[in-house]
Amino acid sequence: MAMAALRREGRRFAPMISSRPITALRSSPLAPSLEDECPLGVRYISTQVVRNRMKSVKNIQKITKAMKMVAASKLRAIQTKAENSRGLWQPFTALLGDLPSANVKKNVVVTISSDKGLCGGINSTSVKISKGLHKLNSGPEKETKYVILGEKAKAQLVRDSKKDIELIITELQKNPLNYTQVSVLADEILKNVEYDALRIVFNKFHSVVSFVPTVSTVLSPEIVEREAESGGKLGDLDSYEVEGGETKGEILQNLAEFQFSCVMFNAVLENACSEQGARMSAMDSSSRNAGDMLDRLTLTYNRTRQASITTELIEIISGASALEG
Amino acid sequence: MLRRALGLLPRPIAAARARSFSTDLPAAHTADATFMEAWNKVMPNMDPPKTPLSFMHPRPPTPSSIPPKLTVNFVLPYASELSTKEVDMVIVTATTGQMGFLPGHVATIAELKPGVLSVHEGSETTKYFVSSGFVFIHANSFADIIAVEAVPLDRIDANLVQKGLADFTQKLSSATTELEKAEAQIGIDVHSALNSALTG
């Protein structure tokens, strides 16, 4: 009867511990180990489960801390490049202005994303903006196609817009980013995709914690001429004398291609910076979470340990008093 | 310690950025406004993405009299060589030949071919060899030179130039396809321009 009372006591301890917000610690894992570990008649409450969990959470914390440091060093390397490339698109915007609301028949949305995950929400933001642009520019006689850079956007866009995807390019960052690589890429895109307007969607890097989704518009030379003739933003483009080449159209064609490669270069660098920055903050909050979890688990562990010591003592003492009396 | 590392990073960014936020929008509101309206109709729950105009310093309007100096921005993909530098004159090698730009020059768009770019400021001249690019002169005496690659002349090795010229001439004579011929021709053009830049 004393044993029955003890058994009830033991059982009462187990659910008390598992009612803490650690969901995986249900009473069932404790119950089998109660019966497993004990020699006949003696009962321990096992701290094994809690200890295992603590070990794995500690490992996760170490890994995420390391990932954060790696992301910080990669960010430092690529940030100087991105800032130096910021002067590259400004002359084009100064000359040709910026017309995100240009009404054209063939839109191409170039979505820039990362290949690797664990970088927070930046890829989802880019994909949402791309889908928004698609909706914005769809209508009678208008069509929007996607050119995707990066695995993450591919995974999301392939699901519902598979027929609108023209080109998919991945493993962009296998070699360090440089202008030659990006200009070859831009050449490929321009060769294979018919476009009136190219809209490049990327995350612009403001600081380690702030990334702004941005869309840069590059118009084809025909549309530039059309907008220049209709006045408005590009109205004074005609006042520019164009040197060289046989026709103005040829120069504008070269200009559009050059503009696209410059804007792409800057966009790819900015997106890479944003990716590393987002990964830093994601891994930072992850390690902080792991730390909190570890604190809670330690408390649970101590409680479990003390409970098992108390149980042992009770058993010994009641066993001794049963023998005496 | 981690927080300090985090804090160290934004500072160089803050120092380096010469750009203002969208509190400083230039007069080109109209395109942005139409875009924002259209966006809000289609995606009311999301903020519209920013556009490059909101990240640029607005350029000054065309002054009524000719300004004394030309303001030059010379950018390369990996660096901003000169940014808003006030100079007296700039000479570039356009596809139609050498062109000089003084303050008050008429607005022009010119494509560059491999050659020398010289920037004249007072009595000093800085010369660069430019591979190719574009130059925009705006009516407000701002000059934007965008080059793919540029090196100061003193960094060029004459022997390598000669060797390269010989190589490409040989390649042109042995080229079979149009593509190879075009590539060899480009090589010859660049190297002979380098040659004349070093000698002339």
Overview of this structure, please?
The complex is a heterodimer of chains A (325) and B (200). Helix content of chain A is 61%, strand content 13%. By secondary structure, chain A is of the alpha/beta class. Chain A has a domain at 85-234 and 248-283: 3-Layer(aba) Sandwich (Pyruvate Kinase, Chain: A, domain 1), CATH 3.40.1380. In chain A, strands 3-2-1-4-5 form a five-stranded mixed beta sheet, with helices on both faces. In chain A, helix 1 (2-18) runs antiparallel to helix 9 (248-324), helix 3 packs antiparallel against helix 9 (248-324) and helix 7 (179-192) packs across helix 9 (248-324). The two termini of chain A are 15 Å apart. The model of chain A is unreliable at 12-38 (pLDDT under 50). Chain B is an alpha+beta fold. Chain B has three domains: 2-42, no CATH class; 62-153, F0F1 ATP synthase delta/epsilon subunit, N-terminal (ATP Synthase, domain 1); 156-199. Helices cover 33% and strands 30% of the residues of chain B. In chain B, strand 3 (89-94) and strand 4 form a beta hairpin. In chain B, helix 4 (158-173) runs antiparallel to helix 5 (178-199). Chain B starts with a helix and ends with a helix. The chains are: A alpha/beta (325), B alpha+beta (200). The interface between A and B is large, with 61 and 56 residues. Strand 6 of chain A pairs parallel with strand 5 (108-112) of chain B. Chain B: It is found in: Membrane.
SS content category of chain A: alpha/beta
Shape of chain B: extended
Order of helices and strands of chain A: HHHHEHEHEHEEHEH
Indicate the proportion of strand residues of chain A.
5-15%
Total helical elements of chain A: 9
Global structural class of chain B? alpha+beta
Radius of gyration of chain B: 22 Å
Could you give the distance between the termini of chain A?
A: 15 Å
Q: How many beta-strand elements of chain B?
A: 10
CATH architecture of the domain at 85-234 and 248-283 in chain A: 3-Layer(aba) Sandwich
CATH superfamily of the largest domain in chain B: F0F1 ATP synthase delta/epsilon subunit, N-terminal
Helix content of chain B: 25-40%
Q: What is the CATH third-level topology name of the largest domain in chain B?
A: ATP Synthase, domain 1
Average pLDDT of chain B, to the nearest integer? 80
Report the biggest beta sheet of chain A as strand number plus sense, adding barrel if it closes: 5 strands, mixed
**N-C termini distance of chain B:** 57 Å
Question: DSSP strand (E) fraction of chain B?
Answer: 25-35%
Per CATH, the superfamily of the domain at 85-234 and 248-283 in chain A is ATP synthase, F1 complex, gamma subunit
Helix content of chain A: 55-70%
Protein name (chain A): ATP synthase subunit gamma, mitochondrial
Organism (chain A): Gossypium tomentosum
Subcellular location (chain A): Mitochondrion inner membrane
GO cellular component, one term (chain A): proton-transporting ATP synthase complex
